Amino acid sequence: MMAWVLNGRWASHADMAIEYAECIRRNLSRRNVSIDAVHMDIWSSLNGRMSQRVVDPRVNLLGAPWSPWEAVPWVMPLLEEFASWRPVARGFRDRLKEVAPQMEVLFLADFPGLSLELYIPEDLGDVSLWLLSGRMEARVRSDSEVCDPEGGGADAFVWDVGPDSPVWFPPGSVVSLETVSDRPSLFMFLVDTVPSDNFTVFD
């Protein structure tokens, strides 16, 4: 079972995540619903760092090991290798607010072998992804002919690191991003909050 909730204090504490998983199991059991797994995909930004996962989403938190005296194996390490990007990200956000107040930017970092699935709402304008470090594979699912002009279902493509090679995603699509490099990936989303009728085809 995957639990989707608003962010809370429990999200950054391993023991509270365990308790929350058990709470879900107990509450569903009272409704005659039996589950044997709870996985959580929690993202957080610590002190202006890039948003990253807090726990390993592949781990079943029902019965997962936890101790106040030992390192918790399913808590993800802090990606310190991207610490130098903090002032760059801060300056970019400030500048973007001045020149394009309708734009939003989100910086994220992820671990090798993990994937992130996102839905691009239809009421947004251009949504572009810029890969800053590492290597990723993007898969897009949509009924839009922009995604798949041949009508074959989902389109998949791979791109390498490069600040001059952004990828645009159409509104109304589901995007899956997997880090396929042997080192963590760093990437940013640029989102135009004003809808547009003119969509840019994939780069």
TrEMBL record:
InterPro entries: VKG_COase, VKGC_lumenal_dom. Pfam families: VKGC_lumenal_dom (PF22777). Residues 7-80 form the Vitamin K-dependent gamma-carboxylase lumenal domain. This is Vitamin K-dependent gamma-carboxylase lumenal domain-containing protein. The lineage of its organism: Eukaryota, Metazoa, Ecdysozoa, Arthropoda, Crustacea. PANTHER family: VITAMIN K-DEPENDENT GAMMA-CARBOXYLASE. GO terms for molecular function: gamma-glutamyl carboxylase activity; vitamin binding. It comes from Darwinula stevensoni.
